[in-house]
Amino acid sequence: MTRLNWGMIGGGEGSQIGPAHRLGAQADGNFVLAAGALDHDADRGREYAQRLGVAEGRAYGDWREMLEGEKGRVDKVDLVTVATPNSTHFEITKSFLEAGFNVLCEKPMTMTVEEGEEIVKIAEATGQICAVNYCYSAYPMVREMKHMVATGQVGKVRLVVANFSHGHHGDATDADNPRVRWRYDPAMAGVSGQFADCGIHALHMASFIAGDEVRTLSADFASTIASRELEDDAMVNFRMEGGTVGRLWTSSVAIGRQHGFDIQVFGETGGMRWRSEEPNQVYYTPVGGRTQIMEKGEAGLSDEAQRLSRVSIAHPEGFPLAVANIYVDIAAQIRGEPHGAYPTAQDGLRSMAAVHQAVASAQSKGAWVDARPPMYRD
Fold this sequence. Notes:
Elements: E1 4-10, H1 18-26, E2 31-37, H2 42-51, H3 63-71, E3 79-83, H4 89-98, E4 102-105, H5 113-126, E5 130-132, H6 140-150, E6 157-165, H7 178-181, H8 186-189, H9 194-210, E7 214-222, E8 233-240, E9 245-251, E10 261-267, E11 270-275, E12 278-286, E13 292-295, H10 303-307, H11 319-334, H12 345-363, E14 369-370
Parallel strand pairs: 1-2, 1-3, 3-4, 4-5, 6-9
Antiparallel strand pairs: 6-10, 7-8, 7-14, 8-9, 10-11, 11-12, 12-13
């Protein structure tokens, strides 16, 4: 199997997400890091890229230099990952899509709904892949849950309860730490803090597993630390197109919770739950029956869950390999092979619309609002 050429923008030395992408993209031999513009400091980015094995001529100072350098090459990159600050995602993603490159963008895909709709239209017009890194949807046992819903094993889904709540920003004396403060600053984070940062992962997961889209929502936001302009805690109720009821809590001040991402799905004939801190297990209860613990790697799981499992039962597969599964599916599509469902520009757009509408709802004391992007409304 010939490796595909991969390029990365952002995610430089010291980055939180950069190592997960580099491990994930190269874990299965699908991609090789061939080009990069890894840091806002051009010299530092070039030097780091070369240390990672990128040839000197393809270690670029910034994304514009990388775009110009790659688009004329016979061996240009097959996929570009955008892992830069949020406010830059739109311009970089748009530019590479229009130049004929496939793109995997970190979330949020854009800062506004209008930008999101433009990205969707460009991706559709060019035929290029535009994926968004909602990587929690790529854990094998999450794919198993999606399969169980799709094949009717829990009946029609009545209720989804999701949360993504941690306590790592709960110390008011640390509120001015630059690594924390920017998340609650509208000039850097946009219109929403915690909901846009973590809550949309939970909202995407609800739609992904249920196989349905959020239609309306009602939100309550709180800034529990007075110096914060944006919310650090949010409760969002939602209704899906098919009638499923949703409850979502997200918080960064829930001291004692670590990662805190979990989801429960309740159908007519059964219920399931999954936690990111125990990603190898799904707890499944058929109506009138006993709770069963389903394990990653055990016999009888769906082909989709088995396909994305790399190690035998009882051995953990963590976050970087969930990211790797996104790359597995993208590589398969680039090669024209069968692949699973990975998050796309449409998912990124729906998330951004939900963020903006949740803000509007919170400002209107929890009024129910249409959560859909304008281009997807009736």
